[in-house]
């Protein structure tokens, strides 16, 4: 039954923009349209230099682009997966693309990281 509730929470979050308790992410509105945002409403980004299910943003890169971390007991579902980073931490990925926030975004809805180095883009559902 818990798994069914989990699916319902995920679908409700994706369709209605509600915050699924497990995922730390939801669909939000920004000037770029529908965008994935974290639990605080901060825009999430994907990195062109990542490969499917593999982050290539480590060290100083990860300080500027903090990974959306996943708890040890987090469960994957459909488009949401968890990757293990080079440092052993777990990170959420959407459709195989690791998700990050941008240190220079200061408030929910900011999209200042979109287009940085021609390699960073808002994560869209």
Automatic annotation (TrEMBL):
Residues 1-23 form the signal peptide. It comes from the Bacteria. GO terms for biological process: alkane catabolic process. The keyword Signal applies. Keywords: Signal. This is Lipoprotein with Yx(FWY)xxD motif. The lineage of its organism: Bacteria, Pseudomonadati, Pseudomonadota, Alphaproteobacteria, Hyphomicrobiales.
């Amino acid at each position: 039954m818990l798994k069914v509730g989990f699916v319902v929470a995920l679908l409700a979050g994706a369709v209605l923009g509600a915050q699924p308790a497990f995922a730390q992410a939801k669909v939000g509105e920004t000037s770029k349209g529908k965008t994935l945002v974290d639990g605080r409403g901060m825009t999430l980004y994907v990195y062109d230099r990542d490969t499917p299910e593999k982050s290539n943003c480590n060290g100083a890169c990860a300080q500027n682009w903090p990974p959306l971390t996943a708890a040890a007991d987090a469960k994957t579902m459909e488009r949401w997966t968890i990757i293990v980073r080079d440092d052993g931490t777990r990170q959420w990925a959407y459709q195989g693309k690791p998700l990050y926030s941008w240190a220079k975004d200061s408030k929910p809805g900011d999209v200042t990281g979109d287009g940085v180095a021609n390699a960073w883009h808002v994560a869209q559902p």
